[in-house]
Amino acid sequence: xxxxxxxxxxxxxxxxxxxxxxxxxxxxxxxxxxxxxxxxxxxxxxxxxxxxxxxxxxxxxxxxxxxxxxxxxxxxxxxxxxxxxxxxxxxxxxxxxxxxxxxxxxxxxxxxxxxxxxxxxxxxxxxxxxxxxxxxxxxxxxxxxxxxxxxxxxxxxxxxxxxxxxxxxxxxxxxxxxxxxxxxxxxxxxxxxxxxxxxxxxxxxxxxxxxxxxxxxxxxxxxxxxxxxxxxxxxxxxxxxxxxxxxxxxxxxxxxxxxxxxxxxxxxxxxxxxxxxxxxxxxxxxxxxxxx
Length: 292
Ligand SMILES: *[C@@H]1O[C@H](CO)[C@@H](O)[C@H](O)[C@H]1NC(C)=O
Ligand SMILES: *[C@@H]1O[C@H](CO)[C@@H](O)[C@H](O)[C@H]1NC(C)=O
Ligand SMILES: *[C@@H]1O[C@H](CO)[C@@H](O)[C@H](O)[C@H]1NC(C)=O
What we know:
It contains four helices and 15 strands. It is mainly beta.
């Protein structure tokens, strides 16, 4: 790891160094710097070169968090990115990766959400996931990561096609959310979305139910992102767009390793809305939980 500026405020220098470094890079490599734009807190986040990898350091301090979004938006695709989470005491902080459409009213709000909930030093991060469509969500699942996500970069992936949303960690599927009850279960099917990443303070609820607050003496907090690979969905021959793939086609069923998914759930699942009987004690469980 290249040495990092100790403070958020040295970002301008680093940006200048990055621009110089980019001039000498091979033209073929895609730079995160070109693929995304800073959307929030840009005054204290920065890009830097770590060897060959242009890396984005998102910063959280007491005044603000920060965030980025992909410049392009996509209607179905696969998104892979490498993230290194906040080291040491990250309690109260949340680092995110999510897909979301541009400013739409809440009744059209779609989202595929990954939130990494920080913890005190030595205690494990939690990966919280959710899917929303047309303003409806509540499909939370949480996982414990099986490695220390603050020590090194790991690849987090969202595969979004008309039939499935699959979340993978280092290529291992941990969640498969199916579009098998059209109209009965939220599933984003029609809007372009951009990929976002953010870091923010959520110490009201994030760590051990909100009991542990952000220790601002440890600030600024950094989360690092790099190596974004976007693979837009390419429609089958003769099909105008991926959403028009014939219902009988098995194309979007391919490549799912069901055994690996089951192993991940058995080992790493912490919370599943479908098993939360307390939450649904006065109402029925969502239909997909009880009907196959
Ligand atoms: C924090 O972010 C908000 C929203 O982007 C912005 O209005 C505000 O000026 C930022 N605060 C600082 C200290 O820059
Ligand atoms: C985390 O703690 C280790 C050991 O105390 C220290 O060397 C390192 O600089 C800390 N990292 C950050 C980002 O504060
Ligand atoms: C933090 O660590 C505690 C103790 O190991 C654990 O119970 C909790 O689930 C962890 N994660 C969060 C987000 O609080």
